[in-house]
Design goal:
By secondary structure, the protein is mainly beta. It has no helices and four strands. A hairpin with a 2-residue loop joins strand 3 and strand 4. The two termini are about 15 Å apart. Pfam families: Omptin.
């Protein structure tokens, strides 16, 4: 999620430029199930070969970033099109 507040330095009908401050949190995770593997043991290189049964958890990963930020934001409008950008 991303929660922010913006203050506009320029606020014209066709373009805007402003400052922003906020807090962002992003999460990503996955779990791999089943499949084959090749591992290296202490005695050898790529000498352990096998497979996990379908549905059995083989490996999982999870990361979470939490961060406050400040930045610039702006947009430009031409007829029915608008181009916008944010730099955090």
């Amino acid at each position: 999620f991303d929660l922010n507040i913006k203050g506009w330095l320029l606020n014209e009908p066709n373009y805007r430029l402003g400052l922003m401050a906020g807090y962002q949190e992003s999460r990503y995770s996955f779990t791999a199930r089943g499949g084959s593997y090749i591992y290296s043991s202490e005695e050898g290189f790529r000498d352990d070969i096998g497979s996990f049964p379908n549905g059995e958890r083989a490996i999982g990963y999870k990361q979470r970033f939490k961060m406050p930020y400040i930045g610039l934001t702006g947009s430009y409008r031409y007829e029915d099109f608008e181009l916008g950008g944010t730099f955090k």
